[in-house]
Amino acid sequence: MADIARIQRVQRSELAVPATSPHFFQKAAQGPADSIFLDLEDAVAPNRREEGRANAVKALNDVDWGTKIVSVRVNGLDTPWAIADIMAVARCPRLDMILLPKVQTSEDVRFVDRLLGCLELETPRERRVGIEILIETTRGLAEVEAIAASSPRLEGIIFGVGDYSIELENFDTVFGAPNPEYAVGGAENDQWHFALARIANACRAHGLRPIDGPFANYGDPDAYRASAIRARALGFEGKWAIHPSQVAIANEIFSPTPAQIAWARRIADRMAAAASDGQGAIGIEGVLIDRAHVKLAEKILARATLFQGAVA
Question: Fewest beta carbons less than 10 Å away: which of 54, 85, 147, 244?
Fold first, then answer.
């Protein structure tokens, strides 16, 4: 599956917008987030889910979203709203992706893929609807490799720390934050390392974007930044923002830094010169540089090119 031509998107920040709060739509459309999802699920009271669906359809059709990635988090497949949600929003030409929550198995994704295919026969589109999913159950994490390989429509996997922590029964009350009881060698650590690393590896094995999920304490920007840095270190390329104040931090953390870009250009230039002299490896400031570093430099520069003006 890794050789499938996936749609390339910049998704450093993914801003959550409740579909029952239409007064936020225009502001979100004009804000700095790379991507936005209109939420029909957890941020909407059960007795307002149909209202939220109608609002999402209207917003997709009427709001000028510019170049932003626009998704809708539909209700889960185990609810009475899921099918109607998908059918309603997938008929809107502006929709980029369905955000499917609480994915348990690869069959969940294949079912939505097939449904979208049928809808696209009914309402042809210039570009197919993508799928991004939330892994937020213990079974979903246990099957994440098979899920990552399930569909060519699948573009990204998000770690849904809230529901996942509930299933683990570790009784965290601030979703996404490190638990001070989880310490290794006397230092506080992120208890989500296993889940994050497994999701990131499954994504990279199948050409998907790994996106970190919510950090509930939006009043603590330093802690959000630390969470984003940890996710970046594990290979993630974006993070949710549940409040607009988190967007700029995510955009910064998940962009290649000027220093990284300068390093990549230097490595590319020096190794190109070395190759012309028949050398496959050189030493720079006491560090052995070989073809693996060239591949790394190429990835950094490719990411910077994808971001274009978003990277200084």
Answer: 54
* Predicted confidence (pLDDT) per residue in 182-212, tens digit: 555 554 556 788 899 999 999 999 999 999 9
CA 83 – CA 81 distance, rounded (Å) = 6
C-alpha pair distances (Å), 67 with each of 30, 32, 41, 191, 250: 10, 11, 24, 36, 18
Euclidean distance between CA atoms 68 and 177, whole angstroms = 28
d(CA 98, CA 195): 23
Burial class of residue 71 in the structure, from the number of CB atoms within 10 Å of its CB (0-12 exposed, 13-18 middle, 19+ buried): buried
CB 215 within 8 A of CB 234: no
Confirm if 27 and 259 have CB atoms less than 8 A apart.
no
- Cα 242 from Cα 158, distance rounded (Å): 14
**pLDDT digits over 122-152, tens only?**
988 888 999 999 999 999 999 999 999 999 9
Distances (CA, A) of 11 to 210, 241, 242, 275, 310: 10, 11, 15, 35, 11
291-307 and 258-276 helices, crossing angle to 10°:
130
Total-model pTM: 0.87
